[in-house]
Structure formats: structure tokens, C-alpha cells
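So, could you explain this one?
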Amino acid sequence: MSIKTPSPSALRLAAWSLAGTFLVLAGGCSSLQSSENNLFGVITPYKVEVVQGNVVTKEMGAQVKPGMNRNQVREVLGSPLLADIFHSDRWDYVFTIRRQGAIYQERRATAYFEGDVLKRFESDDLPAERDFVNAIDTFKGGRRQPRLELTDEERRALPPPKTQAAATDASGAQGLTPQGAARTYPPLETP
């Protein structure tokens, strides 16, 4: 059995074809580079949503007043994320959220106590509840809001309501006769 050796021109053609293929692939790869947000310019990997701590809004912060006891503060703000035994007169409320498609947020609020009574409440610039919801909403513009009312034209197109025949019950009061099949139910307790 003999093995044929390729001719020099066939080897040159194969080398040029291989080099051309490599150049085309290398040139095309610049458009398929990975970035932080996607893989090969096409696939967006799933990122886990990480929410830690207590959401404290401007409305909640406005309810906290000096002189409140610890239970009242806990009812308004929730349990603190950090309650250190070495600093028992201080509750730290820390909130962070990392959500795909939304900006990273971190906020801090601190309640200072003297005994069981709140002395002062300090916080970062807290957002209003509506602003907070808008900041973490990743479906902006893409979600259609449902319409909750009929237009006047749609109301006119509705069939008129069915009238029910009036009936007199045993007490002589006039009421409405039930429409449809009468329902019977089993007794609640068995004898």
C-alpha cells in the first residue's frame, strides 16, 4: 500500500485557505466579544437578584419620632439588620439591592436609643415609596397597564341587564326570584 504525497501547489492552496479562514474568523470575532452584560454579543446570562436588609422609605422615616419605644420603632421600620450586643443603644437598618437591569442601591438608616426610648433617627437620603418602586422596576415601558374602565361606547354596546320577577316570601316582603337551577347543599354536621 502506498501513500500519496500532496503536490506543492495543493499544499499552498490548503495553507492559503486555512489562513483566509483564520482571518475571516478573527475579524468576525470583534463583533462577538463578551462584555459584562452579555456573552458573545448575543446571550445575556441570568444574574441572581440579591436583596438584603430592610427597605426604609421617606414615608416610614417620617413616622419615626424621638420618644418612641423600641417596639414602636420595630413596628414602623421592622427588625433591624444589625443589632449589636456591644452597641445595644443603636439599631442599624441597611438595605442593598442588586437587580439585573436596575442600578445598584445601598441605603443606611440608624436609630439611636437611650434605654428603651428613641433619642434620634439618622438616615441617608431616603426615597419616596413611589420613587423606590420606579428605581427597581425593570419592565419600564415594556409592560402594558391594564385598562380598568369601559369607555362610554363599550358601555352602550353591553346588553341590557336581565330583569328578575319579583316574588313575595313568607313574611310578605317582596324580593327577587333566584334565576337558574336551585342548589342544594349537604348538611354541615352529620347526625
In short: The domain at 51-125 is CATH 3.30.1450.10 (Beta-lactamase Inhibitory Protein; Chain:B, domain 1). The mean pLDDT is 78.
